[in-house]
Design brief:
single chain; about 230 residues; alpha/beta; Spore Coat Polysaccharide Biosynthesis Protein SpsA, Chain A; seven-stranded mixed β-sheet; Glycosyltransferase_2; Glycosyltransferase family 2 protein; Glyco_trans_2-like; Nucleotide-diphossugar_trans
Length: about 230
């Protein structure tokens, strides 16, 4: 299976070099594309200096725009699947082949790199939100997703075409729920994740609460009108 790792990057000068180097070293048979999403730091300069495979947006479009750019690249270059891979070093590339094998073995449309297949969710405000989203997906789709907020997701070509043709359709839990309602088969693979290796996450406490609220509203109401 021909897989493309899409690595959206916004102001990731502290992480991008180590992230790509580790990915190439660990997954020599998997291609990657860094999507420099209008960074104002040295992210693009590093990609250019190192000869990384990358494209750049002139302005910041956000995760949805970055991922859709990668999906369009994948469709135009005949990839069978794409994996969403964080630029900040949290995702571990050794799980990419495992997820690809699971997609083929389970005939899955989406494979989620889950922290909670074999492990219990810790007790925290963020995990309470994750449990709630799991419950909403179960209620609306009839399937259980143990780690709905995991950003490490593998999508087959059929799913990639959905991201290309829909202008506002990002790689988020509500989109996964929508695709599940339309018949997509989802499987999960146990993975480990690290803390961000450098820089700061854009998700502070307030933004995290807002993100959870929007996601829940979308799963319960908005997706029915898509």
């Amino acid at each position: 299976m021909k897989v493309l790792a899409i690595i959206p990057a916004y102001n990731e000068e502290g992480c991008i070099e180590a992230t790509v180097d580790e990915f190439v070293r660990t997954c020599p048979g998997v291609d990657y594309l860094v999507v420099n999403d209008g960074s104002s730091d040295q992210t693009e300069a590093i990609c250019k200096r190192r000869g990384f495979n990358y494209v750049s947006h002139p302005v910041n479009l956000g995760l949805t725009g970055g991922f859709q750019t990668g999906c369009r690249y994948a469709m135009e270059n005949d990839y069978d699947a794409v994996i969403q891979f964080d630029a900040d070093g949290q995702h571990m590339p050794e799980y990419v082949p495992v997820m690809a094998e699971s997609m083929e073995a389970d005939d899955a449309d989406i494979v989620i790199g889950s922290r909670f297949v074999d492990e219990e969710k810790p007790v925290s405000a963020r995990m309470i939100g994750s449990r709630f989203i799991t419950g909403l997906i179960k209620l609306t789709c009839g399937q259980t997703v143990n780690d709905p907020t995991s950003g490490m997701r593998l999508f087959n070509r059929k799913m990639v075409s959905e991201f290309v043709r829909r202008f506002d359709f990002g790689p988020e839990p509500d989109s996964v729920a929508f695709l599940m309602r339309k018949g997509a088969k989802v499987s999960e693979v146990q993975v480990q994740m690290r803390e961000r290796q450098a820089g700061e996450s854009y998700l502070n406490a307030w933004k995290s609460i807002s993100y959870m609220a929007r996601t829940c509203m979308s799963i319960l109401f908005v997706q029915w009108f898509r």
